[in-house]
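Dear support,

Our group has been running a series of protein-ligand predictions, and this particular one with flavin-adenine dinucleotide is the one our PI (initials K.S.) wants archived with full inputs and outputs. We had some confusion internally about which version of the output was final, so please treat the block below as the authoritative record. The input we submitted was:
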Amino acid sequence: MIGGSVGGLFAASLLRRAGWDATVFERTVGDLTGRGAGLGISSQLLEIMDRIGARFEPSAGVAHNSYVWMERDGEIAFVNDRATVGSSWARVYRPLRDAVPAEIYRQGMTLARVEQDAGSVAAVFEDGTRVAADLLVAADGVFSTVRRQLMPGTEPRYANYVAWRGIVEERAVRGEAAAIGDRIVFCFPPGELLLTMAVPGPGEDMRPGHRRVYFIWYRPAGAEALRDLFTDEGGRNHGISIPPPLIRPAPVAAMKADAAERLPAAVAAIVDSVPRPLLQAITDLESARMADGRVAVMGDAAFVARPHSIGGVSKAALDAQRLADSLSASGDIAPALARYEESQLDFGRRLVAHSRYLGAFLEHGSGAPPADPERTIRDYGAPNLLHDVDPARFQAKAV
Ligand SMILES: Cc1cc2nc3c(=O)[nH]c(=O)nc-3n(C[C@H](O)[C@H](O)[C@H](O)COP(=O)(O)OP(=O)(O)OC[C@H]3O[C@@H](n4cnc5c(N)ncnc54)[C@H](O)[C@@H]3O)c2cc1C
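Confirmed final output from the archive:
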């Protein structure tokens, strides 16, 4: 496995259970638990975690009882009674990491290239180490070294809008957090989309009052606006990925001023309370292939759906499961990888297409709202592909 995030960990655990001798090589040194904040989960994700014995604690979820549309004046225009559960990166990542023995998880190993012939495949690392194997799984994320070698030109494509994200302690915005409650709140300022909700607090605390409030605000940005947003104070442009400390104060101030004008007061106050919001360019990535000889490409290395799908981690888990099951069903690697590729190409394409449909109204900067906001809310996530988690499973422990 190249990449020791969720995809590589799912693949390692599932392949080990299928009798393979698996090793994970991760570039980063240190703990990956602190990487994310809130994380949308699916019932398929929890089933696959169960299958590998990675226990998702009943206390690890924040229950959301509905998706609602809040208008500029704070009125609720639409309620979709859809119960689901959100969790956090740490509560998913930690049990996955614990399910893999420490001796097969090798950090500080950056893959430089892959070499393969009919009989074997080898991973060559930047420190010169060469490791030969029967199979190499590329779980090295959106900027995958393996994909770039095997499928040059397959790159993430900018979708013409960005997302500002921020997170604040529930305690610091008590009144505003109460206005959000246990709902996922959608706002549709002209041509834009903002979501806000409660997510786990410090120490992954899920109790009301101890949680955090999260927002993500999707805003159109053409090529010139993108260049401006992703250029630091020193005039250096960072393409489509800017380190948070380098975001200039001016675009943050402009975004907050727009929030006061365009958003309900409670939501604008949440946005305003975050001193250093993060900025992300929204992209699509689609690969034409997920297998090449003895290499299987999976997770974000193969497909990245826009965050509207709330499905990247579940997709990585499903890719890994399909890969392990195909290999178990066939002793030969070539037909197993062909079967894996056939089903997961289809899944990846459908997930990307669904997320593109949800974000289509944001792409053109026309200032127009979605044709049918209620439908956008009902279809949010990927309910056609990934199933919501039933909060009843968690409520016994909810405070
Ligand atoms: C803002 C945001 C919100 C999201 N919210 C959700 C959500 O709510 N629900 C959800 O399911 N998904 C969500 N996702 C998506 C999810 O985080 C990804 O889909 C998921 O992490 C993909 O897992 P992966 O293992 O394929 O890739 P990654 O998690 O990207 O991991 C790739 C790993 O490979 C390593 N690596 C890279 N190159 C090399 C190399 N050359 N050698 C060795 N190692 C290497 C990296 O260090 C990294 O650890 C979100 C993503 C973003 C950006």
